[in-house]
Amino acid sequence: LTMYPLDFAEFCTACGLQSVTFEYLKTCFETLQPVAESVHDSMLRLFYTYMVVGGMPQCVSTYLATHDIGQVLAVQNDILDRYRQDITRSGGREKVLKTFEAIPFQLATKNRRFMLSEIAKTARLLRYENAFALLADAGVAMPCYNVTRPTTPLASNEKRNLFKLFLCDTGLLAAASLQNIQFDILQGNVGVNQGSILENLFAQQLHANGFALRYFQAKSLGEADFLIQDGKNIVPI
């Protein structure tokens, strides 16, 4: 059974959101009706909190017990340190550790694409493939591959040498960003500087709910952060 960090809906449930609210939101979505302002504001507060706390069970438990983001951050940093310790025991650990440490900073770039040249000028994909595979198989990182055309089947259009690499949990990414951004996010300041965390959050939701992560980018057409396949239909997000 594959386990993931809590997604946003599960986080809301853990925070005490009632099923009747979920049903109300679902009805509004399906009928294209505005959500009541009070509900909307409450959901936004939960959303911003989720961006900072994330879905790692120990982090969520700590938040529910204390509502102290400082204590949550301490748990997140401990988890990140344990990841680093595990990586140093793995094969090819230097490349794996460099890849892991590069994720927050590479996501903060303009196009968020993972660039091996930022790790080392001599780095080549063939030499780092095992590092990507190990982090993905361990559930620590989530690759998101470029597709050359937004047509079905998406899998056959993947360009696997162009990809983004997301961290498994939005809260861990916020902690790893080393910018003390938690306060800004909790205040709803999720502008350009927090774009990488917001995009990572949506990657996390899609991944936990069984969707393969793919994106589309073309100079002539622009970019869709994510493309998912629904039968014969392609849904851009």
Query: What topology, given as strand order, has the largest sheet?
Result: 2-1-3-4
The stretches of 5 or more residues where confidence is low (pLDDT under 50) are: none
Secondary-structure class: alpha+beta
The helicity comes to 40-55%
Number of helices: 10
- Whole-Å distance between the termini? 28 Å
How would a crystallographer describe the biggest sheet?
4 strands, mixed
Proportion of strand residues: 5-15%
What is the number of beta strands?
A: 6
Radius of gyration: 18 Å
Summed over residues and divided by their number, the pLDDT gives a mean of 89
| Series of H and E elements | HHHHHHHEEHHHEEEE
Oligomeric state, counting identical vs distinct chains: single chain
> Which descriptor suits the 3D outline?
globular
What would you note in describing this structure?
There is one protein chain. With 237 residues, the protein is an alpha+beta fold. It is 51% helix and 14% strand. The chain has helices spanning 8-14, 19-31, 37-53, 57-66, 69-88, 93-107, 125-137, 170-176, 182-186, 195-208; strands at 141-147, 158-167, 214-218, 222-224, 227-230, 233-236. α8 (170-176) runs antiparallel to α10 (195-208). The protein is globular.
